[in-house]
Design goal:
binds zinc ion; 26 strands; 23% strand; single chain; TIM Barrel; alpha/beta; nine-stranded mixed sheet
Length: 569
């Protein structure tokens, strides 16, 4: 690996307070260093261009059983996007359920170098890691599903925080997971009986615990263990008009949970676009985004991501089985339901967001309203919840909407005006700066994830750099097509010191790292919890406990983050 100097670009590095200054970035080995002599390094000419840390996607679905069901379910999705091989790359298929290789290439082409798989069912962990290993270039991690797990429900019911924490630590280690993911807590368990929960205080069958208890217990356990990321929560009542109230109630429920030392936040709420609907039916649905934004602006313990909707044909997939059943009822499209032992489930339904569908127009506006009404870009992150709101390949278009009111107005002109009045978007003038884009796509996401070597360009950071062929000093918001073009095909993407993209084309496809979290708990607590888990497995599971721990062979490039969870015992 040769040393590199990315020379003369306009650098946006918000974590280090750099906002468009012309400066050089030096990379030696795989890391950013103070500086290098030009004669000792290869020079990447970035003059007149925009330089940012590599993109960090906080929430996407790229590996594991759910995306694989989507791949199998949708041959029509592949036929329209066949990707031939090149000298460097392997062939594949793309669009809403891209094959592993294509996902790696396409993220890199946009300048992304780290991507989080947001839902890993414990029993499917090996499959997730096999696919992540198959996905080239970017670094990754997977979030283990906890919100409807038998043992979580059991320990919450018993009020046993010690065993709950020991179980979280064990399951993260066993599945090589990175964070505590919660999907429709309680609702997915009730789905086994054909039911759901309708709010924070409904009860889960047989356990008699509420979503509120599950969420607050997991948030408390998460913070006491000192995990690098907060709980990562998909709220109850997704996709149901009026659900903005549930979302605010949920954020408020954890307000009293003390964040771990050095962090102000204790909850990340995902793809809020789907959970910010006002009104009481699809006939009178309107945007509840400004109410959520108002809450977030006043409450520093919350972060969220958009789940921006895109007008395109896509494939929805979520661990929220009862919601996907409902969506199947609404659309009549194909549908797959999958239940995973006593711990999780999923549903998959193809879906097309249409500009002549009032509900879809409102959903589209909500994502942008959230981004534009929340003042602090460190707490609202750009995602499409790929592929739920739309494929990640639309990120450059979302960036153009955030940076240019004209981009928004031009598309709004094609929409029904009466429908647009059920949102506030037409009256919003805010336009994101380059620095704010760098914040919501890499700096803030890396910070929220606790990935200290990511999302910035200071010495010691990973040598992940994106260079975009756009001059921020002459660009104006009216030129939004240029932004879209520049962010779609990076001039250079550098990953761990390797040039992986040049002029928008893949130049190399190295293997990325997989991060996971090893939380230490007292040995006695671990032993007591394991004894209970083993007994329950013998009594109730159809598979043996030995199917769970993922062997090291599944993670040839693993990076362990160790945390000491014993302090809060
Ligand atoms: Zn998701």
């Amino acid at each position: 690996m040769v040393d590199l100097i990315v020379k003369g670009g306009f650098v946006y590095d918000p974590l280090n307070g750099v906002d468009g200054e012309r400066m050089d970035i030096s990379i030696s080995g795989s890391k950013v260093v103070e500086d290098l002599r030009e004669r000792d390094a290869k020079v990447v000419d970035a003059s007149g261009m925009t330089v940012m840390p590599g993109g960090v996607d906080v929430h996407s679905h790229i590996a594991g059983s759910k995306i694989n069901i989507g791949r199998l379910l949708r041959p029509e999705d592949h036929r329209k996007d066949v990707v031939p091989r090149t000298r460097v790359t392997r062939g594949g298929v793309g669009y809403s359920c891209p094959s592993t290789f294509v996902a790696g290439y396409r993220y890199a082409q946009m300048g992304y170098t780290s991507v989080m798989e947001a839902a890993m069912p414990p029993l499917g962990a090996r499959h997730v890691h096999e696919e992540l290993n198959d996905t080239p270039i970017f670094d990754k991690a997977a979030f283990t599903l906890f919100g409807n797990n038998h043992f979580v429900l059991k320990y919450v019911k018993e009020g046993d925080m010690g065993r709950l924490k020991a179980f979280i630590a064990w399951l993260l280690r066993a599945t090589r997971g990175y964070a505590v993911k919660i999907v429709n807590p309680g609702g997915v368990e009730n789905w086994k009986w054909g039911r759901n929960v309708g709010g924070l205080d409904d009860l889960v069958y047989n356990f008699e615990v509420s979503p509120r208890q599950i969420i607050t217990s997991l948030a408390r356990a998460n913070e006491e263990l000192g995990l690098p990321h907060t709980i990562h929560l998909h709220c109850n009542n997704l996709g149901i008009p009026g659900n903005y109230e549930t979302t605010i109630d949920t954020m408020d429920a954890v307000k009293g949970v003390k964040p771990k030392d050095g962090r102000e936040t204790n909850i990340h709420v995902v793809h809020v676009q789907f959970n910010a609907l006002d009104g009481d039916s699809w006939m009178n649905v309107r945007s509840g985004a400004s109410k959520i934004a108002k809450y977030v602006n006043a409450n520093p313990h919350v972060t969220l991501d958009l789940g921006q909707a895109i007008f395109t044909d896509t494939t929805t997939m979520t661990g929220d089985g009862p919601w996907q059943f409902r969506l199947w009822n609404i659309t009549g499209n194909k549908w797959v339901n999958s239940d995973v032992e006593m711990e999780a489930g999923a549903g998959v339904v193809p879906y097309t967001f249409k500009m002549n569908n009032p509900a879809n127009v409102i959903q589209w506006a909500i994502g942008l309203e959230l981004a534009l009404h929340i003042y602090d870009p460190w707490r609202v992150y750009m995602t499409t919840d790929h592929p739920n709101g739309g494929p990640f390949t639309w990120y450059p278009t979302v960036i153009s909407w955030l940076m240019s009111r004209k981009a928004r107005t031009d598309i709004m002109l094609e929409m029904n005006k009466a429908v647009m009045r059920r949102t506030t978007l037409a009256n919003v003038y805010r336009e994101y700066t380059f620095g704010e884009i760098a914040t919501v796509t890499r700096a803030a996401t890396a910070k929220a994830l606790g990935l200290e070597e990511k999302g910035h360009l200071g010495p010691g950071a990973d040598g992940d750099v994106s260079v975009y062929a756009i001059d921020p000093t002459t660009w104006r918001p009216s030129m939004y097509r240029d932004i879209e073009k520049a962010f779609a095909k990076a001039a250079y993407t550098i990953k761990g010191g390797d040039i992986v993209v040049k002029n928008g084309e893949i130049a190399a496809a190295p293997q990325g790292k997989t991060y996971w979290v090893d939380a230490k708990v007292p040995e006695k607590a671990d032993a007591e919890m394991m004894k209970d888990v083993e007994a329950e497995f013998r009594n109730y599971y159809t598979v043996s406990l030995n199917n769970y721990p993922v062997e090291d062979a599944y993670l040839p490039a693993q990076q362990v983050l160790s945390v000491d969870g014993r302090r809060g015992w």
